[in-house]
């Protein structure tokens, strides 16, 4: 994977209430890569059906940390749902890491999971299955159609806030209250 940051990388894409695509309704995605060829991101606020312990077990990785094993794995998007994406802090890169920002990376190689299971991994992580992808010009068109807000990435949103709070909190970082947006009606 490339180590070069890209134009909209390290932005959060926040789905506006009017976005009706069930893959992205009320999602927050970390945009990891963006260039003339398209964009790639990972949804950071939607739980999958798996825990990290189940992923470790499927991969044959031993882990004795019950809390780590109970960590939910996120549904990162509809593209490559069988592939793991580990968003993490720190300057260390792994076998297959993409630098999103100075201290933020996304890694797709097994070595980061093995290090996490040994207690030697990054301090803050989000593990997701799948990612989101946009072809050349597609994201720009969706931004022009007001399907998304772009918000500077925020470690608290990525790593600390409960999943169900991330959508409102991300929009709030730029002063937007989703309850006042078109299309919000009928949601709790």
UniProtKB/TrEMBL annotation:
Signal peptide per UniProt: none
Superkingdom: Bacteria
Similarity field: Belongs to the UPF0301 (AlgH) family.
Protein name: UPF0301 protein H9645_11410
Record lineage: Bacteria, Pseudomonadati, Pseudomonadota, Gammaproteobacteria, Lysobacterales
